[in-house]
Specification:
Blueprint (H helix, E strand, L loop, with lengths): L2 E5 L5 E5 L4 H8 L1 H6 E6 L2 E3 L9 E7 L3 H23 L4 E8 L2 E7 L10 H14 L4 E6 H7 L4 H8 L5 E7 L2 E4 L13 E11 L8 E10 L2 H17 L1 H7 L3 E2 L2 H4 L4 E2 L1 H20 L3 E2 L5 E3 H7 L1 H5 L7 E2 L5 E4 L4 H9 L10 E10 L15 E11 L4 H18 L5 E7 L12 H18 L4 E4 L8 E7 L5 E10 L1 H5 L4 E2 L5 E2 L2 E10 H12 L12 E5 L2 H17 L4 E3 L6 H10 L4 E5 L1 H6 L1 E6 L6 E4 H13 L4 H10 L1
Parallel strand pairs: 1-5, 15-19, 21-22, 28-29, 28-30
Antiparallel strand pairs: 1-2, 3-4, 3-5, 6-7, 7-12, 8-9, 9-10, 11-12, 13-14, 16-18, 17-18, 19-20, 20-27, 21-23, 23-24, 24-27, 25-26, 30-31, 31-32
Helix pairs in contact: 3-4, 8-17, 14-15, 21-22
């Protein structure tokens, strides 16, 4: 019998008979590993335990202790069991795409008789448990592609998936009479599949294209141990509680309606107020730091994006150009940098103009697939807090440090403390996707590193994360749900000044090439507000809250006059206040104010009107306190002025 050589993770090499399986290899190492093994990895590809190995390969045994890969195998198996149970529940069910990942698994389904509803998940789960209790063996075999096409000829989705497979023979899995394909590895039996949950249903376009039919996506998860499932379900409950889409609906902040445009948010008055406060804040802050704010069009000649390199690198993320009929092609801008370059080019520039800081709340458009859209976090239209500084070569490090100091000051005002710095470099092993200038890359990467070292800031370095035109510093924040995302960025760019032939006249009277620094302090308004909604759970600090004070008169006839006096005092100080004069009971009004997460609820009755006081209840507190009305107004002013930071606000309140 022919022999094959298998190389293990420790680089040791052993010979085995051709056709041996991963399970055989695991058992040859130890009996216990044979029992724990759930799959193998051949040349970094997951394979079933019983798949014959026919040639030399690198091998890794995946056991139940190997969290990521082992969970994927378990969830593949759960997806197969779900599909078998769902098919027995709805005989006409068709299946689209499926995926197992680090968040669980999903299966796309379709049925002419009616899609699977969330109420039916309980029945399907019971059928799954029945299959698992029987512990039927999952049979793996190879089938000719032609035969598989014939088997699934009545299922348009399966037929399409089969056609996309290049192999002549395809591995198929049979369970309880149900046949499926498209799994990289599944368990040999169902004993380990005890702890799973069917979570939810949602619509999903076939293959992510809005022009295709809408399928029903079933989300689920599975774990090897009960405590893993319990912790995950607890985490999901927290996600649901903090989900910015749910909070946005409950607090009437924004909505997205696919009927009038998927990925295009509509800002309601409450959400628009939050956005307006942030926009005014960041513009005022940037102006104070020497930025000149501009407005530029959202349309630009396509040639500008060809020159900048965006068309070559991001064409798939850009909307199709608009033919104006006279040879001019206009493009919805995906980036603001070419627009700010035009501002720079509009005048002849001297070294005395540098650094030239240009900023804009610039609207951009990205061609996002429907399946990728999510609330405010992934949209097709967004407004970026964008800025570009044009500097001389010897100004780079100082301007970089200055920009970073601005960023840290903004984070302090928003009480953002959990963040790390990432220096993002090009991938030295894959340089073709980056601007071709080794000297530029080496010099600019060294400059960023030196600036960070000068500031004494901790950072980590990440190759392959740079923009195509230069290295960058990314500020990585932790969301309320523990996920990491890039909130802010500072990028060096030697390329675009070269491509657009930007110059300034130096002190020597000669033309010189400036360097661009791209920076976004608080990302896009959409993503930043989604981040804040989830961090605060919708309970915005006073300075950001849409309504900062709600006044509730105990008796409309007796107390409205004094309530209006207090309202006038508040509004005179630019405090966003309102009177709740609805014909509802007091208890309801107070609960509603808490539900809407208004920072201060003020109740006015006989005592308050008589003594010029207010009864104040802060959001999240059970008790109310009587305060002098004027002192209360002053305390709210202090709260807002100090960006609602408790360590400062509380001291201000004590002084009053």
């Amino acid at each position: 019998m022919s022999k094959i050589k298998l190389t293990f993770p420790d680089d040791s090499v052993k010979e085995f008979d051709e056709g041996t399986t991963t399970l055989d290899v695991a058992k040859s190492i130890s009996t216990s590993l044979g029992k724990k093994a759930v799959a193998g990895k051949l040349n970094d590809t997951l394979v079933d335990l019983e798949r014959p190995i026919k040639q030399d390969a690198k091998i890794e045994i995946i056991s139940g202790e190997d969290k990521e890969d082992a969970l994927k195998v378990l969830r593949n198996t759960a997806a197969l069991v779900f599909s078998a149970a769902a098919k027995s529940f709805k005989k006409d069910l068709h299946f689209g795409e499926k995926q197992a990942n680090d968040d669980g698994f999903y299966v796309d389904t379709d049925s002419k008789e009616g899609q699977i509803s969330v109420d039916e998940l309980k029945e399907i789960k019971a059928l799954m448990n029945k299959i698992i209790k029987n512990n039927d063996k999952i049979e793996r075999s190879m089938m000719d592609k032609d035969k598989l096409v014939e088997m699934f000829k009545d299922d348009p989705y399966k037929s399409s998936l089969i056609s996309a497979i290049e192999s002549v023979q395809i591995p198929v899995y049979t369970l309880d009479g149900f046949v499926d394909f498209g799994y990289d590895a599944v368990l040999t039996n169902l004993k380990a599949l005890k702890h799973f949950e069917l979570l939810s249903v949602a619509g999903a376009y076939w293959q992510g294209k809005s022009s295709n039919p809408m399928l029903q996506r079933i989300y689920a998860t599975a774990f090897y141990k009960e405590d893993g499932l319990e912790a995950d379900l607890k985490r999901r409950a927290e996600i649901k509680e903090r989900d910015h889409r749910t909070i946005g609906r409950d607090l009437d902040l924004f909505f997205v309606d696919p009927e009038v445009g998927a990925g295009l948010p509509y800002w309601m008055p409450n959400g628009a107020t939050i956005r307006r406060v942030i926009e005014r804040y960041i513009v005022d802050k940037e102006v104070a730091w020497g930025y000149q704010h501009v407005y530029t069009p959202i349309l630009m000649n396509l040639n500008a994006y060809k020159t900048s390199g965006h068309w070559a690198h991001y064409r798939e993320d850009m909307f199709p150009p608009m033919d104006m009929g006279d040879g001019e092609m206009l493009e919805l801008r995906p980036m603001n940098c070419p627009s700010h370059i035009q501002i720079y080019k509009h005048h002849n520039r001297s070294y005395r103009d540098l650094p030239l800081r240009i900023a804009e709340l610039g609207m951009m458009h990205r061609y996002e697939k429907s399946g990728a859209l999510s609330g405010l976090q992934r949209v097709r239209e967004m407004t970026l807090n964008d800025g570009h500084t044009f500097v001389a070569l010897d100004q780079i490090q100082e301007e970089f440090k200055r920009t970073l100091q601005l960023m840290v000051e903004v984070y302090k005002d928003f009480d953002i403390n959990d963040y790390t710095f990432r220096l993002s470099y090009r991938d030295p092993a894959n340089t073709e996707k980056y601007f071709d200038d080794d000297e530029m890359w080496n010099r600019s990467q060294s400059m960023l590193k030196a600036a960070m070292d000068d500031l004494g800031l901790k950072y980590y370095e990440a190759e392959g994360e740079a923009a195509f035109y230069g290295p960058k510093l990314d500020v990585q924040t932790k969301t309320a749900l523990g996920n990491e995302e890039t909130l802010s960025t500072i990028q060096l760019d030697f390329m675009q000044p070269e491509k657009f032939q930007l110059t300034y006249v130096g002190s020597d009277g000669e033309d010189h090439r400036p360097v661009m620094i791209h920076r976004g302090i608080v990302s896009t308004m959409e993503r930043f507000i989604a981040y804040l909604i989830e961090i605060y759970k919708g309970a915005f600090p006073t300075w950001l809250a849409p309504t900062q004070v709600r006044i509730i008169p105990v008796n409309q006839k007796l107390h409205t006059e004094y309530a209006n006096e207090v309202l006038s005092e508040l509004r005179a100080k630019n405090i966003r206040a309102e009177i709740d004069d609805r014909d509802e009971k007091m208890g309801y009004k107070i609960r509603d104010s808490q539900t809407m997460k208004i920072p201060y609820t003020v109740v006015i009755g006989d005592e308050e009107a008589k003594n010029a006081t207010v009864s104040v209840r802060k959001y999240g507190e059970d008790d109310s306190a009587s305060e002098n009305a004027k002192m209360f107004v002053s305390s709210v002013v202090a709260d807002i002025a100090n960006f609602s930071r408790k360590d400062v606000t509380d001291k201000s309140a004590d002084k009053n």
